[in-house]
Design goal:
Rossmann fold, alpha/beta
Length: 350
């Protein structure tokens, strides 16, 4: 019997974040039956009214909702908990919540733990089979979700041998501070002034920053290493060669990825396109006849799909393919994935 009709007691930790607000929008829209919805933040943030973020204007008929203090919340009163903001908060509370509820952790606090399933709903939903009536699920980073969603059908078609990818990260990947930083930089420069706010350590408006995250001793950023590691885990391909360059671009929403891959077996371009067209969570955009294909400005309006375009044979290498990927990092890759994972858990036969 399905549990989908049973109302859930749901909590969102980090409800005031971009991702938390996007999760809330999906729940309010009826994605899951909710008996109650607790909106929580860490100490210092509670008490303010949750805004709607970059997802549209507030409905005047919708009552204001006060965000509570996560440190004062009894997780025994929740059936499902989303962690959407600070990793430190998830590290402090997620294990306790998972003793009595399903925990879906969208932070990086538990992504590296081999005993915690790392799940992108459109890629490896079977990883949820080991989760019982309670427990913890970790969600990959947004770029990892976008990349693995596009790679999975091609892996099924002809096997993956090597993946090279350059990412173009939107500023919303850094939260509201990233959005505010780009907006402030843009206003200042268009007003003939020097930017004052630099959340990325350098001017972001009208600029491209060839670094996302901190560098290790080998000169690899933590975002680059995380994307490679998470992609291998999602595809259950520990030996897959993944080479990443992560770049920050002056775009509010929508990560872009230029992907170059080599497949293990020969394939036809038409078969690769058909695999992408039919892939779960994917939308193939025909880039023929001079069309641009997917862009962040248009994809942000379609938050339920990872979009793929510019699909073409790499004529410099055998069994190789090039294509372009765009996905709304907040709404599709983070919030939609979080709610989709919850729906799979809730709707399983019991």
């Amino acid at each position: 019997m399905s549990a989908s009709s049973t109302p859930l007691r749901v909590a969102i930790v980090g409800a005031g974040s971009l991702i938390g607000d996007a999760v809330r929008e999906r729940l309010v829209a009826g994605a899951l039956p909710c008996a109650s919805l607790a909106l929580l933040e860490s100490t210092g943030s509670p008490g303010r009214v949750a805004d709607r973020g970059e997802g549209g204007d507030r409905d005047d008929a919708e009552p204001e909702t006060v965000i509570g203090d996560v440190d004062a919340f009894d997780f025994g009163e929740a059936d499902l908990v989303f962690f959407c903001a600070h990793a430190a908060t998830a590290a402090r509370h997620a294990a306790t919540a998972a003793q009595t509820a399903w925990v879906i952790d969208g932070t990086h606090a538990h992504r590296d733990r081999p005993d915690v399933a790392l799940v992108a709903a459109d890629v490896n939903p079977r990883a949820l089979e080991r989760i019982g009536a309670r427990g913890m699920v970790a969600l990959p980073g947004s770029a990892s979700v976008a990349l693995a969603t596009a790679l999975a059908p091609l892996d099924a078609l002809a096997g993956l041998e090597r993946v090279d990818v350059a990412t173009y990260h939107a500023v919303s990947g850094a939260g509201r501070s990233g959005i505010d930083g780009l907006a402030a930089d843009t206003v200042a420069l268009l007003s003939g002034k020097s930017p004052r706010r630099r959340p990325f350590g350098e001017q972001i408006a009208f600029n491209v920053l060839p670094l996302v995250g901190a560098l290790d001793e080998q000169g690899v950023s933590d975002e680059e290493r995380r994307l490679a590691d998470e992609t291998r885990r999602l595809l259950d391909a520990p030996g897959l060669a993944v080479n990443v360059t992560a770049v920050r671009v002056p775009v509010f929403f929508g990560h872009g990825l230029a992907v170059h891959l080599r497949l293990a077996r020969p394939f036809e371009l038409a078969d690769a396109i058909e695999a992408l067209r039919r892939g779960p969570g994917l939308r193939w955009i025909d880039s023929a006849a001079g069309q641009f294909g997917p862009t962040p400005a248009t994809t942000a309006l379609q938050p339920d799909h990872v979009e793929v375009g510019r699909v073409r044979i790499d004529e410099s290498r055998d069994r190789s393919l090039n294509f372009w990927v765009v996905a709304d990092n907040v709404r599709k890759c983070a919030a939609h994935n979080a709610v989709s994972v919850a729906q799979i858990l809730v709707n399983r036969p019991r």
